[in-house]
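Subject: two folds for Thursday's group meeting

Dear M.,

Sorry for the delay on this. The cluster queue was jammed most of the week, so I only got both jobs back this morning. I'm pasting them in the order they finished. Each block is the input sequence followed by the predicted structure tokens. Could you check whether the formatting survives your parser before we put anything on slides? The first protein is the one we discussed after the seminar.
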Amino acid sequence: MIIPEDQTKILKEKVLKIIAFISLKGGVAKTTDLLMMAAELASKGYKVLIADKDHQCNLTHYFGIYPNKGTIANVYTGGEVDIVSVAPNIDLIPGSMRLDEIERQLETNPNKNVFFYDWLDNNYQLMGLDEYDFLLIDCRPDFGTATKNAIAVSHAVICPVIPSDFSDQGKENLKLRLEAYRKEEIIRPSRESLITAKLFFLPSMISSTIKSKELMTILAEEDNVLNPIPQKELFNQTTKDNTIIDMKNNPKTYKKHQAFFDVLQNSLDSIIETLNQIA
């Protein structure tokens, strides 16, 4: 699709940093990593908005929210979109289990990939979006319309990668699809791509296993790899009221698992520094 240059609007000049969390397969700790980053940013005083673009709505349900109106689906169908406070410094745009159905309905719409772009632009000041420091978007594990909408507004795409037999294949597949998408969305008359997001790979669930070492060897060939997130059983014990960041900031828990938390903190600090440098 070719977009007139005067329709690229305010989003490319905003202070708000928009990060899409994307993977082409499930079970890679994508939502877990997003929640962890949101909690860490919030604990540092950043104001964070998170958006659930996965029709499974795991991000929304994590906070005990099961909405039947005001969801992100209204970005595509019209109507009000709610922003719900879910934790200190963290607000949520709830997901919709109808999002996959809506994607199918938009299939022949020539503007199907920029609905979220236009919605953000139209509501940037109206809904106080300019008050947020970060917007983190949880995407479904595919490269469909909702995911493309997220990429179109993002400064960065973070793809979690875990130790598995197909890690390299998934990594290369996403790189190819993202590059093809850059060529689809063109601004006239400059002929520049609307898609400017930088792709980063985030090694997750990393341990001392052979598969973890193999994954880190593969990723060593890339120049866009974030610091790894170590594996720890504590992740399975997290709740909305006791996140991994809450555990890290609890003196008793920190002392018991200091080595893990020190590695995690180093990675989180490095990731946040990288995200803050993105224009």
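Second protein, same layout:
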Amino acid sequence: MLEHGLTEAAAPARTVVVGAGGFVGGAIARNLEARGANVTRLGRGEVDLLSDGAGEKLAGMLTAVDAVVLVSAIAPTKNLGMLRDNVTMIEAMPQLMPTFDPDIAKQAERVLIKPRDIETKVGLWATKIPPGSPVLIELTNPETKEVVVTLEVDACLVATGRIPATKNLDLNMVAVETDRRGFIPVDEHLAVMRDGKPVPHLYAIGDANGKMMLAHSASAQGIVAVDNICGASRTVDYNAIPAAAFTHPEVSFVGMTEPAAKAKAKEEGYEVTSVRSYF
């Protein structure tokens, strides 16, 4: 997926890919090499991006080469603030970390964002980012569809999610169609669905079904699918699967958010209370 769709734009002559040992990093490196770039591949262990001083390391790398691609998990709210004089984070939803509980998101913003030179813009869509240098980013109001502001920046890191790699599975051979986003429809037992009914002996797990796009969710689904193949009748409790943001320090949660729990309680006729503690 990352190796196709090459444009005619010239690649930077000297490029470093951090995290090139993985599948995604390797694909990015090959993509750049196919465009004629001289790529230096670094594994995560060769540049400790989670250690103190990582911002200075990255800044030093940027002065020595034309571009750096970060594929390894890094602590952006700690290190990106050190990398440039000004960093702007753009979120289409009304709050940062929209999938997290609002209390967690507010605390993370207080601890990780506000003490650093990081500007945040929420509730806006980045509707246009044409190629060029400097990079121009048009931010649009999602309600009025009007351009609110155009940012001029040195570089733009786009992290808007993933799509499933299901196009080349030849699902048409078993008359199975993906949804409009490319996900394979499955039932609660992870059996692939066709015309509203499970296809015998066919299962889909992980990012392919889009239920919860986390590695440990895929592992749990794999265990459940194997059990069901062997004759059991198991499902995955997604409320028991944790999620995390790889900031510094890390932020994690498990279960429903408080607003989601209260909405469910109102629908089903019971009350929800919350308790806060610090440690």
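Two things I noticed about the second structure. The CA atoms of residues 101 and 257 lie 5 Å apart. The helical segments are 23-34, 54-64, 76-83, 102-113, 215-229, 258-268.

Cheers,
T.
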